[in-house]
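Recall that a protein's primary structure is simply its ordered list of amino acids. Everything else, from secondary elements to tertiary packing, is in principle encoded there. The following example makes that idea concrete.
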Amino acid sequence: MIDVPLFGEPMPKPEFPPRVYRMHAIHGHGPEGRTCKGCSHLIHQGHHDYVYIKCELYGNTMGSGTDWRQKWPACGAFAEAAG
């Protein structure tokens, strides 16, 4: 008898959330090796003694669905942040 998994191999976890892929689909890929950390569209929003990082272009729902990470790859709308 052959041992076959019922549902096959588990799906690999995507490297980035769908919102990152959406930004790349809209704006294209950014400069090679650059991340959102150096972009002028990245905003830091303070609320209840905590700082939430958001992308100005993606929007802000005041929820975790629009939280951003500085380490994510930059999209084609990347604009170098001043200083």
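The first strand starts at residue 42 and ends at 47. The chain has one helix and two strands.
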